[in-house]
Amino acid sequence: MNTRIILTGGPGAGKTTALAELARRGHLIRPEAGRDIIREEVRNGGDALPWKDATAYAARMLDVSKQDYQTGDSPFPVFFDRGIPDAVGYLRLIGQETAQAAELRENYPYHPTVFLFPPWEAIYENDTERTQDFAEAVRTCDIISDLYQKWGYSCIEIPKVPVTERVDLLLELLRKQGKDTDTGFTILFFLEGSNVDILEIKRNNPKSTDKKDIYQWLFFDRESGVLRPLSFVSMEAGPEQVRVFSEGVLRFGNQTGSWESDGRSLPLHVPGLPRLSISLRTQLKAFLLS
């Protein structure tokens, strides 16, 4: 199933806050394109701004959304703060259409469930990048929600509750749909002083009964924002091999691209590693002791 998962809705509804909470829990995210575009245009004295040239702004938003889509290719869930349909929806908001709509719908699919953050006046605030009033935020949400549904997505509205509850609900809904956001025996490491932030080990076929399980080793390249395969390793009696590996600390050589296990105990709790979540530590500990 497609692992690109969209959070959408009107502006100022709490999407970005929820995305930050997902990142804090160790999930891959893609920030909203619109705000970055506005900051860049203001900094460079450009006109591709909602209050100057809305058409140019929409075109840039669509281009950046396409780029984000391409870099969001991952075997793990990637949560997007808006997607390509949002750019098309913005065009409709300003009374325009794009001839690319059918092509975009066909060639840039996302996870079939979209999480809709409804307008929430109690938390709505304007700033230098969000200049529309609350009434326009409501209209934006209505147009975007309608577009996603017409494109065949199922929109689930996230209730107006604290952010931790919103994210808990979102993840639980995904699990119930059979897209569990816990990725099996995945080991996450932060690596200091390198352009590589995380290295992950994922069992490609968790349901395999074959003693030779194939494990894919992936690293997260901070510069490109993409999970890249490091190598493929065929392991006899796979779980035991992973157990041995899990008892070591993985080191990724920034210059040589090599790795090694130094035989020390797996750091099940290391200060400053927020992505090594409590649930993952518990899972790994149970796995090592099994």
From TrEMBL:
Domain NadR/Ttd14 AAA: 4-166
Superkingdom per UniProt: Bacteria
Protein name: Predicted ATPase
Entry-linked Pfam families: AAA_28 (PF13521)
InterPro entries found in the cross-reference section: NadR/Ttd14_AAA_dom (IPR038727), P-loop_NTPase (IPR027417)
